[in-house]
Design brief:
It is built from eight helices and no strands. By secondary structure, it is mainly α.
């Protein structure tokens, strides 16, 4: 049997319903990822003005342990990065800077986790839906080929059924687009949030390094 006939027989046997079920399953996973990321991002962003003010209030007096104690109560990226730098401040400015770079890389990885799934789904869900549509159209034409030579009344009914099948097949493309749009929107939103969170962390990094540098110049322990 020709390879085309084999593939066609497989598509005809399985139909296009499994594509819709796959899209529905992917949409549920996408929703779960979106909710989980949204909750995580709530805990990873802080009011940078408030946090920097609290840090300056303690760092300006040279009380680095108090600054670390203040940061221990916070779960934001900026707090984690600043905390890593202050813990290494007694080892010098270079150690503090390297410690904050390491903490920032870890936090960035945490923020970006699972976002690749949303981006991939957003790019490919319409193609999955289009695949289901192609299968549906193939089934419709297969049914149409079986109506050739049938009586006029029967042929008309069969043609209407075929057109109905084509319309149903287009639903797969619509569902694919419907699954892709929220995934793309969420992916872009989270990317903007990551940029904002990392910018806040960078501001706090510069603040900590400024006080660590001043401490070194003043010969503080």
């Amino acid at each position: 049997m020709h390879i085309v006939e084999i593939v066609k027989d497989v598509f005809i046997h399985w139909g296009a319903n499994w594509v819709l079920w796959l899209l529905f399953a992917l949409s549920l996973v996408s929703l779960g990822v979106i909710l989980e990321r949204w909750w995580l991002f709530r805990t990873k962003q802080d009011r940078v003005r408030e946090l920097s003010g609290a840090l300056e209030a303690t760092l300006s007096t040279g009380d680095f342990p108090a600054a670390i104690s203040t940061l221990e109560k916070r779960t934001s990226v900026g707090a984690a990065v600043a905390r890593a730098g202050l813990r290494l401040a007694p080892q010098g400015m270079t150690a503090a800077e390297k410690g904050m770079q390491s903490a920032l890389a870890i936090e960035r990885s945490t923020l970006e986790n699972r976002l690749a799934f949303l981006g991939t789904l957003g790019n490919n869900a319409p193609f999955i839906g289009l695949f289901g549509t192609v299968i549906g159209v193939l089934l419709a034409f297969e049914a149409l080929s079986k109506t050739q030579g049938a009586p006029t009344g029967t042929s008309q009914v069969a043609s209407n059924a075929v057109m109905g099948s084509i319309a149903e097949a287009l639903v797969a493309t619509a569902v694919g687009i419907g699954v892709a749009l929220p995934a793309v929107a969420a992916y872009n939103y989270f990317q903007r949030r990551i940029a904002s969170i990392l910018a806040d962390a960078e501001a706090l990094t510069n603040l900590v390094l400024a006080y660590v540098s001043a401490r070194e110049r003043n010969g503080g322990a």
